[in-house]
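We modelled each protein-ligand pair independently. The example shown here corresponds to the 2-acetamido-2-deoxy-beta-D-glucopyranose entry; the chain sequence is given first, followed by the ligand as SMILES.
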Amino acid sequence: MNNINDVVFSGDYDKKKPCSSSWISSMLFRRITLVFLVAVSCLGNCDSDDLESVLRAASMKDKTVILTSVNIAMAKPGFVLDVFLESFKIGNNTKKLLNHLVIITLDQKAYARCLAIHPHCFALKIQGLDLSSEAFFMTPIYLEVVWAKIHILATVLQKGYNFVFTDADVMWVRDPFPHFYEDADFCITSDAYYGNPSDRKNLPNSGFMYVKSNQRTMKFYKYWYSSRKTFPGLNDQDVFNKIKYDPFTAKLGLQMKYLDTAYFGGFCEFSKDFNKVCTMHANCCIGMERKIHDLKMVLEDWRRFMLNTTNLKPSSSFTWRAPEKCR
Ligand SMILES: *[C@@H]1O[C@H](CO)[C@@H](O)[C@H](O)[C@H]1NC(C)=O
Ligand SMILES: *[C@@H]1O[C@H](CO)[C@@H](O)[C@H](O)[C@H]1NC(C)=O
């Protein structure tokens, strides 16, 4: 078990000599992470065919899929998953996108609920971990979930699929695809957007990203995932912020662009113009109940907007009432 990550990825990032001077501390570290790594490595082998067939069934013509992940705390009737699916149904031309959405479930109950309401479900199994409760921000379980997410996204790229990954607390009210940058490998939303899509000072939010499958993105995702070891205890987004200036990332030639909050807004920074908004994310908000309350308000606001023809003009200054509890 010297090179666990080689099992996980068959990658070329972890070809360090196993018996280096830090062998003992690294063995201690490995013992802690062993359960996780072994379980996820199984994913690459054991569940690979399952994943492949779910992706194939959900894929657009150009091999693009939309992915989200939920546990039962989110997938219970009336909770985040239902609000998420509702947004596609009341959004403008977004209903058809549901045909391309794969819901990745983190526990058995969430999988059962998914099967009951949606055609494309994939059960992600992380052995030895119960992922069914609300994963509070930055707890060990939360970290396992976000890193498992990066791992599965890496696998999807390796299988040749482009993807939009969306957290389930992102409301889709317009088709976002026309607003992705043609020349970018990787588009990510922003908690704060400073006006230039290439400016790496924009604050990224990994809760919504569009990624094309190619050599650069495959290598970047492997690197991102393996950087968990370099920065133990950080989540995917914090590690992303560490490695985005990295020489390795620069050398890959990865074209990374930030999406404008005018189209891809959230509670951190709003999409003010209802004639532009594509997605609204309940970011800058902790706590499932508060999120659900305010996301339902977002959908109410959208309905009011769509119902009143006065609003459907570029000059309309229709405004959001949400958020109320997420302030
Ligand atoms: C909805 O989509 C149609 C077709 O793309 C477009 O013509 C219309 O302006 C859109 N309405 C809104 C409110 O965005
Ligand atoms: C439609 O919106 C306009 C402008 O926001 C508002 O003045 C008007 O009362 C609304 N009409 C209805 C029927 O809600």
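The two ends are 47 Å apart (CA to CA).
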